[in-house]
Design brief:
single chain; 216 residues; mainly alpha; Arc Repressor Mutant, subunit A; three-stranded antiparallel sheet; 8% strand; elongated
Length: 216
C-alpha cells in the first residue's frame, strides 16, 4: 500500500475482519485496536462530509493526512530501532576484557536531513556521532564502567549560563561508542523526567538541548 494514497474504506473493512478473528483478548492489543478503529472511523466520516476543509494556505486538507503522518513517524522510529538493534548485535560479539580482537569493518555512512525534532532525529544524531569515531584496526579491550547517572550528571553540568547545550559540544566530550550510547539513554531519561527538552531553532540547524529545571 502506498502510504501517501491510503484506501480508507478497504483498510477499515480489513481492520474490522481482523478484530473479529481475534480468539483471545489481549488488553494492550485491544486498546491499540480501539484507538486505530476510532482514527479510521473519524477519517472516513470526514471524507464523507461534502464541504472540504482548508488549511491556512487555502489548500484542501486530506483527512488521511493524520494517518499518513503517523505511518511515516512509525517508519522513522522503526529505522532508528533497527540501527540500535544492529549496534547491540555487533556488541554481543565483543570479547571479554583482556582479549585482543581485530576490527576491520568500516561503519556505514549516515546522511541525515533534519526537519522536525523527534526521537528519531536524536537517535540518528547519536548514531552519526558513533560512525564518526575513528576505526581502529586492533585494540586491547579494557573493562570500563559507564553509568547512566554519571552521563546524566555530565549533561547537566555541560549547560551554559542560559541553560543551553549544543549537541556538538556534548558529543565532543565523548570518546567511545559505549559513552555515546549511554549518553543517548541519559538524554531520553532526562526528557522523561521533564528536566530537559531538545529543540531545533532553524531548518537544518544543529539540535540543541535546553534545561527545563534549575541546576542542582
Amino acid at each position: 500500500i502506498d502510504i501517501y494514497d491510503i484506501p480508507i474504506a478497504d483498510i477499515t473493512h480489513e481492520f474490522i475482519d481482523i478484530v473479529e478473528e481475534m480468539k483471545q483478548l489481549n488488553i494492550n492489543v485491544a486498546g491499540e485496536f480501539i484507538v486505530m478503529a476510532s482514527t479510521l472511523m473519524r477519517i472516513k466520516s470526514k471524507m464523507l462530509i461534502p464541504r472540504p476543509e482548508f488549511d491556512e494556505d487555502d489548500e484542501i486538507i486530506d483527512p488521511r493526512r493524520e494517518l499518513i503522518d503517523q505511518l511515516l513517524e512509525y517508519s522513522r522510529f522503526k529505522e532508528a530501532s533497527e540501527s540500535l538493534n544492529a549496534f547491540a548485535e555487533n556488541r554481543s560479539h565483543i570479547f571479554p576484557a583482556g582479549k585482543t580482537m581485530p576490527v576491520s569493518e568500516t561503519p556505514d555512512e549516515v546522511n541525515i536531513i533534519l526537519k522536525n525534532v523527534t526521537l528519531y532525529d536524536i537517535a540518528k544524531s547519536f548514531k552519526m556521532a558513533m560512525d564518526n569515531r575513528p576505526v581502529i584496526q586492533s585494540y586491547e579491550l579494557q573493562r570500563e564502567a559507564i553509568y547512566l547517572d554519571n552521563q546524566k550528571e555530565l549533561i547537566i553540568k555541560s549547560f551554559d549560563g542560559d541553560g543551553r547545550l549544543r549537541f556538538s559540544t556534548l558529543l565532543n566530550q565523548l570518546q567511545t561508542k559505549i559513552e555515546i550510547v549511554v549518553t543517548f539513554l541519559a538524554i531520553l531519561d532526562l526528557m522523561r523526567l521533564h528536566q530537559i527538552t531538545v529543540v531545533q531553532n532553524e531548518i537544518f540547524g544543529e539540535l540543541e538541548i535546553q534545561l527545563l529545571t534549575a541546576k542542582a
